[in-house]
Automatic annotation (TrEMBL):
Region annotation Disordered: where it falls in the sequence: 1-20
Keywords carried by this UniProt record: Methyltransferase, Transferase
Alphabetized Gene3D superfamilies for the sequence: Vaccinia Virus protein VP39
Ranges where the Methyltransferase type domain occurs: 61-157
InterPro entries attached to this UniProt entry: Methyltransf_11, Methyltransf_Superfamily, SAM-dependent_MTases_sf
This protein's name: Phospholipid N-methyltransferase
GO molecular function: S-adenosylmethionine-dependent methyltransferase activity
BP term (GO), one: methylation
Xref: PANTHER family: METHYLTRANSFERASE, METHYLTRANSFERASE TYPE 11 DOMAIN-CONTAINING PROTEIN
Length: 277
């Protein structure tokens, strides 16, 4: 975790209800929210429609979270699937999904250094992980994704991006405020910045789409989780001390900072002939 992530809550972070101290994405997961991506389920669906996971693909997912995207990827019956994540949070949920698929595995490793072999994947997927890294962390993860991909392989990411026509000062203020609210450092890039990062590691961005930062809007929660899932989420929030107040603060933060940033998905490709194994 970055120094900024540790300090984002400021003084008094270690006191008060647990819900007030947790990183935002893990609080949402604890309350039962399965879709933790900034653009929601619909934006991930658009990304995977473009990535076209298939039965002859070897797939690596970096940071599978609680397994919502893994479920979609596994519906394609890929040649193999490996989810890579060092964090214990969400691990049991993902393993419960993977145990139904004999060609799926869970790898406890960092996305910057997975330990997997070179050119072992046709599709690498990573969501809501690059944004919280500093420049060096972003570069290391993208470099690892490029190393894992075979020629012609696809890299699908779902992150946050700045909207156009805002000053650097406005963006830095919004970045700091969002980091404070979610208690993890948020460092979005512009669309051009994401493309440049990918290109630095030999990956060509060929498609992108955007969605507003409506992660905690009631309509988005129902769309992402379904009616019963949304009701369960809100009921859990009422029961966990401090959770309702924390969710209110996070929602207000998303509404304010969402004027400057939103979710973005990008599909990039490693040049070369596809199908080389």
């Amino acid at each position: 975790m970055s120094t900024e992530s540790k300090q984002a809550g400021g003084k008094g972070e270690r006191s008060g209800p647990e819900a007030g101290r947790m990183q935002g994405h893990w609080l949402l997961a604890k309350l039962g929210k399965r879709i933790l991506r900034p653009g929601g389920r619909a934006l991930t669906a658009k990304l995977l429609e473009q990535a076209k996971p298939a039965g002859d693909d070897d797939i690596v997912e970096l940071g599978p979270g609680v397994g919502a995207t893994a479920e979609v990827l596994l519906r394609a019956n890929p040649r193999s699937y490996r989810g890579v994540d060092p964090n214990p949070e969400g691990r049991d949920a993902v393993k419960n999904i993977l145990k139904k698929h004999p060609r799926a595995d869970y790898v406890v490793a960092d996305a910057r250094e997975t330990g997997l072999e070179d050119a072992c994947a046709d599709l690498v997927v990573g969501e809501a992980m690059l944004t919280i890294q500093d420049d060096a962390g972003k570069s290391a993860i993208v470099a690892e994704a490029a190393r894992l991909l075979r020629p012609g392989g696809r890299y699908a990411i779902h992150e946050m991006a700045w909207l156009p026509d805002h000053t650097d000062e406005e963006r830095e203020t919004a970045r700091r405020e969002l980091s404070r609210v979610i208690k993890v450092g948020a460092r979005p890039l512009t669309l051009e910045g994401w493309k440049e990062l990918l290109a630095t590691h030999g990956l060509e961005a060929e498609w992108h789409d955007r969605a507003p930062l409506h992660l905690l809007e009631p309509r988005r929660i129902v769309s992402d989780e379904g009616l019963w899932g949304a009701l369960r989420f809100w009921n859990n929030a009422r029961r966990l001390p401090g959770a309702s107040d924390r969710l209110k603060a996070m929602r207000q933060g998303f509404q304010l900072q969402g004027k400057l940033m939103g979710g973005i998905v990008i599909l990039a490709r490693k040049p070369g002939a596809a199908g080389t194994r």
